[in-house]
Write a structure and sequence with these properties.
Layout: H1 7-16, H2 53-62
Biased composition (Basic and acidic residues): 8-28
Region (Disordered): 1-51
């Protein structure tokens, strides 16, 4: 019975680790655009207005 710390598994483990660590450069942000909420009024779709949630879930389950 092979021991849990066999040399074969150690070798395959070593091969998976990259030779040199990958370092990502930190880049300073140059063009920052401020985010803003849309001023357009959104209303729910027509099909949801006449149903309560339970009826709507039943309807969706049947289709």
């Amino acid at each position: 019975m092979p021991s849990p710390l066999s040399t074969k598994s150690e070798k395959t483990q070593e091969r998976r680790v990259s030779e040199s660590p990958i370092v990502h450069k930190e880049v300073e942000a140059t063009n920052m655009v401020p985010l803003r909420r849309s001023t357009r009024q959104r209303r729910p779709p027509d099909r949801y207005q006449d149903f309560n949630l339970d009826e709507l879930e039943i309807e969706d389950a049947l289709t």
